[in-house]
Amino acid sequence: MTRTGFVIANLWRKKTRTVLTLLSIVTAFLLFGLLQAVNVLFSAGADFVGATRLVTQARVSFTQSLPMRLLPQIESVPGVERVMWSQWFGGVWQENTQLIIQAVDPARLRDVYPEIVMPNAQWKAFESTRTGMVVGRNLANQYGWKIGQKVPIASNIFPQKDGSKAWTFDLVGIFDGKDEEWQRNTSGGWINFAYFDEANQFARGLAGVYIIRLSDPDAASGVAATIDDMFENSPDETKTQTERDFNIGFFKQIGDIGLIVRWILFAVFFTLLLVVGNTIAQSVRERIPELAILKTLGFKDGAVLGFVLAEAAALCVIGGLVGLAIATPLGVVITKASGGYLPLAVDAKVWLTGAIAVVVLSLAVGLLPALRAKRLTIVDALAGR
Amino acid sequence: MLKQVLSITLLGLRSIPERLGPSLVIVVGLAGVVAVFTALLAMAAGFQSTLEAAGRPDVALVLRGGSQAELNSGISREQGTIIKQAPGVAQGVDGLPLASAEVIVIAELMKAGETTGSNITVRGVEAAAFTLRPKLRIVEGRAFTQGLRELIVGQGVARQFEGVRLGETLRMRGSDWTVVGMFASGDAYESELWADVDVAQSTFNRQGYSAVRLQLAGSGDLQTVKDALSADPRVNVDVETEQEYFSGQTEQFRKTIGALAGVVTFIMALGAMFAALNTMYAAVGARAREIATLRAIGFRGLPVVVSVMLESLILALAGGLLGALAAYVLFNNMAVSTLGANFTQVVFRFAVTPALVVDGLVIAVVIGMVGGLLPALRAARQPVTTALRAA
């Protein structure tokens, strides 16, 4: 019998116990995978936007719109390659579903965000159709919207000139992201600022926030400082930060969710540690005479330690793999079910932390029983002392 | 029968110290499940009670049609006057309508040690605003003076954020505001900064208001106000009671947290159940000879089943209590904040309510039952002779 075979045979001796222990590890890692994905969403979810863009908002809050008249001044700052602005439309679909719809200048959007992929004809159509709208693939799929159709969207902020808050836009394009991460971010849409500015009742020349594409990403902090200095002590003081920081700040507003997720992870792991640790300790206790016999047969202390540790590791590795493997498609299902608002990606990053957790768990639960097995003296163990 | 159950159960319970480790697995496993369940729902309960306490059934909130939240709404000065003079609005001692036209703007404040700001509501109010919120009182300093750039700060904001202590100045849109007082109200208004409405309008360049609050004269007067305003072509507004407005806002949060708590608790409960099964199988395994002996001297199968389940239940209940206690000690009254409907922070406290603790214990009991049942059946079914001969 090989050593691997010996470990497997030992695990399989008490089938019920092994299976139940495995199942608890599987559920724990299933939860770990999903919660870790939530954690990533809130902490590092903004990583992929990089630092090539700056966002200039009103200093007091980004909900306060900056006026259009700042545009030429921002464009004149050295290091600024292209500037766009985006006004929050407050889009509402049907009864009460809020949509991420913003009013922008199509040509500027295309220059500032090369990560957005859309056929040239659709870009052109967006530029030339005043009532045009483009939406992300996720949003279009969710409601089954097709290019060419008219989409009725209300605004919870801006009435039209006649006082009605019901707007209708022509869907002229559906965009994708350049990679998987950008693709996940296609749950919103854009409308034509020129049309919005003219057709709404009271907001004239209100840009919202400015988004700036830099010619040199390393110049970010310098450009940001220059812009903010320019408007200091004016009625429109600005706060300029990288797009990444802006997004992180945005997510942080949701509050102490990250903290609460970490508490849950902690509770899950603590519980798990006890369950698995106890099972392994018990199985070592029961087999003390056997271990003594192994040593009598000439197995070294180290080998005995290895057997016990291998059993613990096998349970953790198999349970961890299966748990994460179930979490991965489940994350996709949740993403779909939430309509893209909760994009849970159990991706390579989550798997990596999962792998680390497996190693830590194996050592934490296996080491004490393994050391006990290693330290056994043959005479005492056989005598049952 | 009862006597048999009692004696076997006591026998089992007395031997728990010898099987302390495995028994603790049930206790700790369930403590984890119940603690997580209770803590998550305590958060939802706290958020809900904070917002709902802010809403009064006899105050009408008037927003521009289709706005959903005060932040999105806008009402001009002329419209504000028309709304205040609607029939059905109570009169104050001065003979004027008891109503407050208010403007909402948002400021960014930092939490201690953080570098990104959080949105805080700055509410410009008229004098009647204080009459419309009878629970609100100044606990430190004084109220702001009309016409001056002075602020009073809600207790919740003062505790969570920096730069708003008494006497400090806050810079907004190129102007300095002095914090002159702190107020408490025990509800969502504690998450706001209040100032004089005229000063707020001029500083933030607002021509009109965000919302108008009306004290209703009688219980049926909401409809009177609604009818009068919808018949008036000069205004296009939504009218609802303040209570309806605030409870509508908690719905989404309650649903989200409820779903999260459901999924997490379900998965954790599964894990805990496997652990409980494991422990109880081990327990009946260790006591196989003892149980077989009892059966041999005339104890029946049913008392054995019941006693094993009772043991599992007692352990589960102990775990549940421990978990609820942990949730209470760690989280009850902990102040946290999240985004509310105005896209600003609402500061609220976890509320571990008795109802939540009971729900948590019910979950623990169910898992304990399931975890005990299969092992109990195995214990009772064991052939006496085999078990007696086993090592």
Q: What descriptive keywords fit this protein?
A:
heterodimer; A: 385 residues; 15 helices; 13 strands; B: 391 residues; alpha+beta; 2 domains; ten-stranded mixed beta sheet; two-stranded antiparallel ribbon; 52% helix; elongated
> How many helical stretches of chain B?
12
State the secondary-structure class of chain B. Answer: alpha+beta
Instruction: Give the % helix of chain B.
Output: 40-55%
Separation of termini of chain B? Answer: 30 Å
Strand content of chain B: 15-25%
Radius of gyration of chain A, whole Å: 29 Å
Order of helices and strands of chain B: HHEHEEHEEHEEEHEHEHHHEEHH
Uncertain regions spanning at least 5 consecutive residues of chain A: none
Give the C-alpha Rg of chain B: 30 Å
Task: Give me the strand/helix succession of chain A.
Answer: HHEEHEEEEHEHEHEEHEHEHEHHHHHH
Report the uncertain regions of chain B: none
What would the average pLDDT of chain A be, to the nearest integer? 86
> What general outline of chain A do the C-alpha atoms trace?
elongated
Number of domains of chain B: 2
Quick structural summary:
With 385 residues, chain A is an alpha+beta fold. Chain A has helices at residues 3-11, 15-43, 71-75, 106-112, 120-128, 137-143, 180-184, 193-199, 220-230, 243-252, 257-286, 288-296, 301-337, 348-375, 378-383; strands at residues 53-58, 66-67, 80-88, 91-93, 97-99, 101-104, 116-117, 132-136, 150-155, 166-177, 189-192, 206-214, 238-242. The mean pLDDT of chain A is 86.
Report on the structure:
The complex is a heterodimer of chains A (about 375) and B (about 400). Chain A is an alpha+beta fold and about 375 residues long. Chain A has two domains: about 5-45 and about 255-385, no CATH class; about 60-235, no CATH class. Chain A is built from 15 helices and 13 strands. Chain A has helices spanning about 5-10, 15-45, 70-75, 105-110, 120-130, 135-145, 180-185, 195-200, 220-230, 245-250, 255-285, 290-295, 300-335, 350-375, 380-385; strands at about 55-60, 65, 80-90, 90-95, 95-100, 100-105, 115, 130-135, 150-155, 165-175, 190, 205-215, 240. In chain A, strands 1, 2, 3, 4, 5, 6, 7, 8, 9, 10, 11, 12 and 13 form a 13-stranded mixed beta sheet that branches. In chain A, helix 13 (about 300-335) runs antiparallel to helix 14 (about 350-375). Chain A is elongated, with a radius of gyration of 29 Å. The two termini of chain A are about 30 Å apart. The mean pLDDT of chain A is about 85. With about 400 residues, chain B is of the alpha+beta class. Chain B folds into two domains: about 1-50 and about 250-390, no CATH class; about 65-235, no CATH class. Chain B is about 50% helix and about 20% strand. Chain B has helices spanning about 1-15, 20-55, 75-85, 130, 155-160, 195-205, 220-230, 240-285, 290-295, 300-330, 355-380, 385-390; strands at about 60-65, 100-110, 120-125, 135-140, 150-155, 170, 175-185, 190-195, 210-215, 235-240, 335-340, 345-350. In chain B, the strands form two sheets. In chain B, strands 1, 2, 3, 4, 5, 6, 7, 8, 9 and 10 form a ten-stranded mixed beta sheet that branches. In chain B, strands 11-12 form a two-stranded antiparallel sheet. The two termini of chain B are about 30 Å apart. The model of chain B has no long low-confidence stretch (mean pLDDT about 90). The interface between A and B is large, with 59 and 58 residues.
